[in-house]
Write a structure and sequence with these properties.
Elements (H helix, E strand, L loop, with lengths): L23 E3 L4 E3 L15 H5 L15 H14 L2
Antiparallel strand pairs: 1-2
Length: 84
């Protein structure tokens, strides 16, 4: 499943540059994660890098976008082949 950023986000700017898929961007008030681009870093790293660097622990799994490891890896392969 992809991740999402809760309203506890303090806009510290550390998560966006860590995302290898470019899934994180500044929203209207806080950073947001595009579920179509989020692979939880599957294919790139062992753990989601945004979660690793977040100082307020506000990036949980998104219950509205449930995906298995295999689905995340398949999405990673599509993104890499598309040049994202």
């Amino acid at each position: 499943m992809s991740l999402f950023i809760t309203d506890e986000c303090i806009n510290c700017d550390v998560c966006e540059p860590e995302c290898p898929n470019g899934a994180i961007s500044q929203g209207e008030e806080i950073y947001v994660i595009d579920p179509d681009l989020c692979t939880e870093c599957v294919g790139h790293f062992d753990t989601p890098q945004c979660v690793e660097v977040c100082p307020v622990d506000c990036i949980p799994k998104d219950p509205d976008n449930v995906e298995s490891h295999d689905q995340l890896y398949a999405k990673y392969k599509v993104l890499v082949s598309a040049g994202n």
